[in-house]
Amino acid sequence: MDGKILRGICGLFVTGVTVITSGTGDAVDGTTVNSFTSVSIDPPLVLFCLHRDSRLRAVVKETGAYVVNFLTGPQERVARAFATRDTAAIQDVEAHPSVSGVPVLSDALAFLSCRLVDELEGGDHVIFLAEVVDLGALRQHHDPLIFFRGALGALADEPAPGHPIWDG
């Protein structure tokens, strides 16, 4: 399987953009992730995937908790700042502590504060499964930041013409 072709095909699936934050006190870090999904409503479980060599991996394991921050359309700069190896510091953005002490980005669309349940190997990535223990919609009337065809962007103001196809 050619990895570049696989990445291109998967890039045709629109995803939301999140910044995962973890750690407490001076040992806080964050990274931009689009591999987030909900798993279960009862119990309330979510997951995200992280490259096995990511600097955030040890922070999540040590803390046993993380926050999923859903970004708004205008937060592309924040997404890019947390996407590099020399990531932005949490002090560079407005944040407040979640119930677990892990930072929540105050200008995020919404957040999920999570307690780590399991860490599973998934090829060159690690899957972090967690239970949602707190949540909030901070900017619920804003559009989300999305990732499509390898680019960040906001939703269009008008839906594209066409007829939706619903299956199921």
From TrEMBL:
- Note whether Methyltransferase occurs among the keywords: no
Flavin reductase like domain location is 10-154
- List, alphabetically, the SUPFAM superfamilies matched: FMN-binding split barrel
Identify the keywords attached in UniProt to this record, alphabetized.
Oxidoreductase
Gene Ontology MF terms in the entry: FMN binding; riboflavin reductase (NADPH) activity
- Which PANTHER family does this entry report, sorted A to Z? FLAVIN REDUCTASE, FMN REDUCTASE (NADH) RUTF
Q: What is this protein called?
A: Flavin reductase
Organism from which the protein derives: Phytoactinopolyspora mesophila
